[in-house]
């Protein structure tokens, strides 16, 4: 750190816009946070200030020097060609000093690409008789209702998981379920609800250990589409053990095979401990035509999984064998293997049943996902399940189903046809695990909701009560739906971690031991009071920050004394700002992979009545929105999205996208609307196009390259030209008035604007002209219109230094009138994406109201930051200072800092650290940095650096 710092310092002090905290004044202001804390009418508060509130953390030794020398070589002077296209920039030298990993920035560091194939783990053989076995509900999404829960089938040395919705990985971390022990993942359907967690899971497994790991993935044939889509950002090696079964979906009736050939169960796994087979379920209406269905759409196929444990052989009685004239040895063994043996002495055939107790059939578990009524029709008539029905006569091999887990939606499960079908399993235990409001009251991620509750207690202004705590009791105690009492069969609602034991035999049945208790909000706060008694005063102080009347006298005098504090002067754009103007909600603030306390990147820009935008959309974004806004509130936010902007192709920034888009599609079914605008790097286009073969995402894509300043300038020029062009269509281009029909006819006209010979073909040839401008043109027009309606003047992407096609973004609000009727500038928010500090970012951030900057590493890990093209806390703050931004929000922390990152208090006077679900209202920006010391108080006993995470982090494709 010291060398970096002095470097920067030299550069800055020779520049006109000298960074204030690098000036000698800095020494006098080592404790800005405490010196800016005004006295409170609370006597004990002085004790807060006088004692070291904040633990001083030993800096973690910079590691991996060897590797870094190499990347610093890149840094010295050779970064010009790619990133320094503007020789006039005065910060360029600084950026060279900062350095970056060129190979990585250009996508040539595919260390994992060399792996031929990620291996499956070799497991010792389990003893089929003595193994412990159970099925367990992994309640992912049970509280947030955003995804399908998973089911774990457990044996001593084998684990099977059914469905992998978003958040599964985070769930497993929370509940100490080791991902590395999972051998097989089965999908009951292939869609974002059941498989949204798969990309992240595969990447995490690929990063385990030196070699990486893989897992068998099973699903109906649509799985191929998902795998093809995931190839855009997941190494092939991670997906070699993917196996699909059943007929391929096709819109071409002639090409579709006879579905009847898929009527029999398909055996997927058959070993000593379990046999797992798949029974395919398709909508009845697609099978009408003499068994040849007219069209099987992707996503139509659903699966009933049948898991059968082997029978337990009855006890062998040697004395009975002896009586039959047999001798110990091969003859006994044959009998025990179930074969008959001829007794020469008695001249009779001896059968196993003569010498053994009858064998006991193994338990059978069914997992049923029946998504629609027409699937239900098919389900009720399935011949392949006959053997499993209790009352069915003429069974070939009688099988008694022990337990049925229903993943079907509540609307289907509660229908009379479904309950009648359930009854056919006789005494089987039914567990209803589809979405149910019943489970909403117990947060699935207990640890992070405990922190959320503490943050809320301390500072409800930045951490509003979670959507769940605020739920009305009436909603929580929604009546148990039709099943249960009205059914003659055994049926209960699933709860998180509910188990059904299969082995040992004497323990067969439900086990509620692991179901978490309801977490009482009051207990969490009591615990906090005991642990950190000063928190009471801190909360009062924070309350005072909001309810005081602006600047205190002390602050004003400080400002005169210390000129740099004038930086804290309220920017014009915040004059009489309204609280319903803007709120920045940090939905995910961790890097690389979802962890216990921090989800991966996602920022919701809440424009209240005018809708909202998502900047990045990591796995679990929908779930986080539900945690913040409640189930219904989040749905409203999704419906009101104006666009989703994705910074780069790393999975931690976009793998929640499909789920959000699918949810929006479902919510807007039957409502007139337009496809949602998704702006992202070009690799994302390939992913989305491939994914849409699986399920329609109802979106339109725009390449980030089309939204750079240069591209937008070309677009504006072209727009003007097209407006002035005498053409019948031009009368349609009144902003906001064009209806859909008009627009589509206009789009056709627009796309010809750039054709050869057309007046604007010169745009094609201009250097730096955006790609596919003729395709992008109508989308850009649409974007402009939508931004305007949302009160935004511009959305501009700019290239950053991280990986190929990595971007940051500027959002600028339109001008508005202040209380004096004077026109004032709108606010400006800049989000860095993942990046090294770079001139483009500093330029784009000039005068920003808020800079949301990644700060993956602490200051002492600058080498690490360079190697991975990320930034340190200090570097992020430097960028903000150089660009003269008003407030800096740091985010995207390495998961090695589980709860709070390591940072230097001295430089935080305009900066705050982001936490998951932190909601920063634009009106609260002035006080924001002053809250940080108190937030830090909450974690003073738990600043742990988790080194074990680093191995995982090295999967280059994932951060
Ligand atoms: Zn990242
Ligand atoms: Zn990244």
Features:
32 strands, 16% strand, disordered C terminus, binds zinc ion
- Strand tally is 32
Mean pLDDT: 80
Helix content: 25-40%
Associated small molecules: zinc ion
Please work out how many helical segments DSSP would assign. Answer: 35
- Strand order in the sheet with the most strands: 6-5-4-3-2-1-16-17
Describe this structure as you would to a colleague.
31% of the residues lie in helices and 16% in strands. The chain is built from 35 helices and 32 strands. Strand 28 (828-831), helix 31 and strand 29 (850-854) form a beta-alpha-beta unit. The chain has 959 residues and is an alpha/beta fold. The chain is elongated, with a radius of gyration of 31 Å. Helix 5 (65-75) crosses helix 32 and helix 19 (446-458) packs across helix 21 (521-531). Bound molecules: zinc ion (2 copies). The site of one zinc ion has 5 residues, from loops. One zinc ion (ZN) binds next to loops.
